[in-house]
Write a structure and sequence with these properties.
The protein has one helix at 99-114; strands spanning 2-4, 17-21, 30-36, 39-46, 49-56, 59-67, 78-83, 86-96, 119-123, 131-139, 142-151, 156-166. By secondary structure, it is mainly beta. A hairpin with a 7-residue loop joins strand 9 and strand 10. Pfam families: DUF2617.
Length: 167
């Protein structure tokens, strides 16, 4: 699913992103509710990037990657934690591209994910390349999601990959 977001970027560079585990839902510009067995998953586009809410009989998990006013960026490369009845893993990579590679990658990702039933693409005003992309999947009890945050002004793409599995 692709949606045009009626708000300017809040996070204007990859270095401003903060990873958080826990907390409550933030105001979302677009949401995609999904169900994988007894797990409810909600992909959420924020003006400041993304949030994923997971709820199941095993427990809940809330992941937020966003810009938070007044706080310095903190986006760890890898996190592994126990969250209620889940083992949670998170990975992040910030990669700078040349213009041609950036355009090619974001165009391909956008086309692929917007056609996927568990995919959400949010396009910010001003550039068709100013997007946040989320894609969820479930395989043998493991729930996972990947995100891509595109920064056309610096040709950076932030890629995150998260997964939870019962512990």
């Amino acid at each position: 699913m692709r949606t045009a977001l009626d708000t300017p970027y809040t996070d204007v560079c990859a270095g401003q992103l903060i990873w958080q585990l826990g907390g409550g839902p933030r105001q979302a510009l677009a949401m995609l509710p999904l169900q994988f067995g007894d797990v409810d998953l909600e992909l959420r586009l924020l003006g400041a990037s993304h949030q994923v809410l997971l709820a199941s009989p095993r427990g809940a998990c809330v992941e937020t990657v966003a810009c938070v006013a007044g706080q310095p960026g903190y986006l760890p490369e890898h996190v592994s934690e126990q969250v209620e009845g889940w083992r949670y893993e998170f990975r992040a990579v910030i990669k700078k591209h040349d213009q041609e590679a950036f355009v090619r990658e974001i165009t391909t990702l956008t086309r692929t994910v917007e056609a996927h039933p568990a995919g959400l693409v949010g396009q910010f005003p001003g550039s068709p390349l100013a997007v946040t992309i989320l894609l969820a999947q479930a395989t043998r009890g493991v729930i996972g999601w990947r995100t891509w945050h595109a920064y056309p002004q610096s040709w950076e793409i932030v890629t995150t990959e998260s997964r939870v599995e019962p512990r």
